[in-house]
Amino acid sequence: MSxxxxxxxxxxxxxxxxxxxxxxxxxxSLRPAVDGGPTDLREVSGDPGWRDRLVEAAxxxxxxxxxxxxxxxxxxxxxxxxxxxxxxxxxxxTCSETARGAAPIFARLAETxxxxxxxxxxxxxxPTETIVLEQLQLARALGRPIDELEIxxxxxxxxxxxxxxxxxxxxxxxxxxxxxxxxxxxxxxALHASAELRVPAPENGRPGSVVVVDDDGxxxxxxxxxxPRRTSWRRLHSAVVHGNPTDDLRALEADLRTTRSTLETVTxxxx
Length: 271
Prior knowledge:
alpha/beta; Dihydrodipicolinate Reductase, domain 2
């Protein structure tokens, strides 16, 4: 029995040509859904209103859903309690193979209580709240889910923040510039080891890097580049076919709550 699942995006969704490229690169796992026929996997745009569209896609019979780059929005119903099918949340930094490959090492070093530094370089078009959310998602993926975030300094082109987690502190830095291409990175320095992650924007088509320094010296992990959207679709396929549970939606809602409470505090201080 073939495990190839039919896949489609919502009308006017984010994928377009990218989704067709993903499907053609995974012919044994995914196939285009037939118009009017059942759809196993559906991609939902993360534009405002994504919660309602997620619930609607599940009600229409999807076996798994990919939420692509969700944007922060006003609190809604706890959809994680009303959707029982696998949901994968796609974020361009967190879902890269580079970040996923670095996660076990960073998580191990995070257990020592060492400070984690997370940084993002961006242009001037994307909203600050979206960048805050993406940094929280990256910190969580590297073993430091944030319970509380405090913005320390803020301007039109940058901010610094301090996050508190049960496993240790996290410092955040965002810089807007036209001098560099968008990228994300993280660094953690423990007593006997350190690790540094660099992730270029997916549109650059370049692999990132993970450099580890420990008692054996300095080495760069061998990582294979894969478009983050392809990685997310493979993960969703595996979750549906093999019954692998996903906690993406619950983690996303937790990071959204932290994002909203942080920005509300900043707004209250400035008013």
